Amino acid sequence: MMLPLWTRGPIDVSLRTIALCALVALGLPHGSQAASRIDPARLAPKSAIAAPSGAATLCHRYGWACSGSGAAIAPSDLLHHARRVNTAVNARTRELSDRSQYGIEEMWALPTRRGGDCEDFALEKKRRLIAAGLPARSLLIATVLDQRRNSHAVLVLRTEQGDFVLDNLRSGILDWRRTGYSFLKMQNPERPARWDAILAGGVFGRV
What PANTHER family does the annotation carry (predicted)? Predict the structure, then answer.
């Protein structure tokens, strides 16, 4: 994914300032005021926001990626299926940028035989987990800044125990709070064709 312009420069100062400005601009509470109303185990949407640029045609090409339906599966099986799929996709898919594969900066698509980039990994994991019986509304693609403040995309698995992250940079899955990532946007669980601002974790956790 292409590095956002606002992540360049003095990282610690600029990101903290932008995080505060984002909360104020959206009319959102921060600090203890927000924490008192939010389940910390879940990524809480702040407000509706535009979809990532590369995802503009996602729902048209892959209807299942934006479906809010899906079969039910026993909660005890969720993490088992997620770990298995995360490991398999990471092992079998070669990392390849959209620029190398399609000649453009952003193109959200399933991996090809040549490979794919982070959002392609996330899409393939979502496809496989839906096919295994997990509800689509519990499988949400999110955009983040990783620990090096690079743009990245992951798949969020929503469970009764909280939100867990499937990541092409890790073989295991983690509680979202343990990733160290700054979560920017995520599909809306009720209407996955829509996206929400998240602004949580990483730099936002220090606001």
Answer: BLR5470 PROTEIN, PTHR39327
pLDDT in tens, 89-128: 999 999 999 999 999 999 999 999 999 999 999 999 999 9
What is the DSSP secondary structure assignment for residue 27, as one 8-state letter? Answer: T
* CA–CA gap between residue 67 and residue 99 (Å, rounded): 28
* CA atoms of 50 and 124, how far apart (whole Å): 22
Instruction: Give CA–CA dist 119/142, Å, rounded.
Output: 9
Q: Which phi and psi angles does 73 have, rounded to 5°?
A: -145, 150
* Identity at 193, one-letter amino acid code: A
CB 124 within 8 A of CB 111: yes
- What's the domain range around 70? 5-206
β partners of residue 139: 157
Q: Residue 196: which H helix or E strand, with range?
A: strand 195-200
User: What was the pLDDT predicted at 1?
Assistant: 61
| Total domains in the fold of the chain | 1
Token pair listed for 105: 């900066």
* Angstrom distance (rounded) from CA 165 to CA 90: 13
DSSP-derived secondary structure letter, 56: T
In a 13 Å sphere around the CA of 161, the CA atoms on its Cβ side amount to 12
Burial-class residue 121 by CB neighbours within 10 Å (0-12, 13-18, 19+).
buried
